[in-house]
Amino acid sequence: MERFNIVPGAVVLSGRQTMIVLWDKGPDVIACPLVSADEALHRADHSLEWHELVDAGLRRLDVRCRAIPCQRQVLSLRAIGCVDEATVKRLRMMAQREWKHRFQESVPSSKVRAKPRHVGKTTAVWFDGCSMSSRREERLHMG
User: Fold this and answer.
1) What are the residues facing 64 on neighbouring strands?
2) Global pTM?
3) Tens digit of pLDDT per residue, the chain (143 long)?
4) Euclidean distance between CA atoms 36 and 141, whole angstroms
């Protein structure tokens, strides 16, 4: 498999990171990394069957796919194998689910306010290496 023939389902090396390509977007691809089974479990981790890893041309069978989409340039990738279409579909569903989770975490809710409207601006006051939130607190501590 040549560099310009990297398609969805290709198992590629990006530097020292092994990844599975899920979508190709012109000069870039969207891929998910393969992580060692020794790493902490993440909600986006998806176990792959041993025969899928063997078919993909991987030497290590103790890896999981972390379905966190990453964008990479095709020219920086080196193909080492491929997985079947069913595996790609499963990983795409996991990656889309993870995108939704991350989007929900990053978008603030319109119903939740950071602080009430009546709370004014507070300034920090520093005395002898300690921080006080207001002059009122300073009076409480000092006298």
Assistant:
1) 35, 47
2) 0.68
3) 445 578 999 999 988 889 999 998 888 899 999 998 888 888 888 888 888 888 888 888 889 998 888 889 998 899 998 899 999 999 999 888 888 887 887 776 666 655 555 555 555 555 555 554 555 555 554 44
4) 53
Tokens of 58: 């991987």
Calculate the alpha carbon distances from 78 to 14, 69, 105 in Å. Answer: 7, 18, 33
**In angstroms, rounded to a whole number, what is the distance separating the alpha carbons of residues 98 and 69?**
8
Query: How many angstroms separate the Cα of 65 from the Cα of each of 39, 92, 116?
Result: 12, 11, 43
